[in-house]
Amino acid sequence: MSRSIRLTAAGAAAAVLVALFGPSGVGAQDPVAPANSTTPVPILLYHHIAKAPKRSSSPTLYVPSALFKQQMAALARAGYEAVTMDTVWSAWTEGGELPDKPIVVSFDDGFTDQYTGALPVMKARGWPGVLNLIVKSPYAPKITTTQVNGMLKAGWELDAHTATHPDLSKITDPARLTREIVDARTALQTKYKVPVNFIAYPFGHVNQRVAQVVINDAGFTGGLTTVAGLATPGTDPARLPRVIVSPKTSGPALVAKLAKLNR
């Protein structure tokens, strides 16, 4: 099956109408669920696509570009095809299509090496990535606006990673939660003119209060954690699991890991 087209603004509006009136308007019969509507999807988590600097305090966050290329090649040989979160959600809830073995390749924070190291590899395969971007990142080297726009032009999806990357579960001030979640989504939507339907939680931490702000106040479709596992239509959308990819994971090992999770 071919990969679904990403949701557009018009598609998002149509989704609202479907939720209110059904797929064909008032009085429409319940549709037959498509065969792939229950497909579990691995959501990979990457940070840096580069060799870790000497004396790095977080070497596990670095996957060298050559290894990343090997991992993507191994996934392709195993039959996987990258899609966006919007495409996954469309297939789960609106009858959209997924490949036989869909996978989401997500990147947190927004580093320049995601543009220089990941984009060319993904682009060569015609695969989109998902960039979870901090609005005002405290980390370097920061990705530029021009680079983000280049990713969007290549078919990538832009999602949020809060305004300044705090541990949301430790914030008790409602106004600050609003700034970090609601305002962050608005800022990215305004700047890049894209939907920004998902948020990746810093450090993967989320509690009930944060989940309510994410879904009810900000209007996000869902949130990404760092809990290991495959995302499914039955998963709490505010707590979608991901698969962290380390610099010690070879391409074949990554494929084997996903196969084990899918048993």
TrEMBL record:
Compartment list:
Secreted
Annotated Gene Ontology MF terms?
A: hydrolase activity, acting on carbon-nitrogen (but not peptide) bonds
Q: Where is the signal peptide?
A: 1-28
A Pfam family that this protein carries is Polysacc_deac_1
Keyword check for Signal: yes
Its GO biological process annotations read:
carbohydrate metabolic process
User: Where is this chain primarily localised?
Assistant: secreted
Arranged from A to Z, the UniProt key words for this protein are:
Signal
Please state what the protein is called: NodB homology domain-containing protein
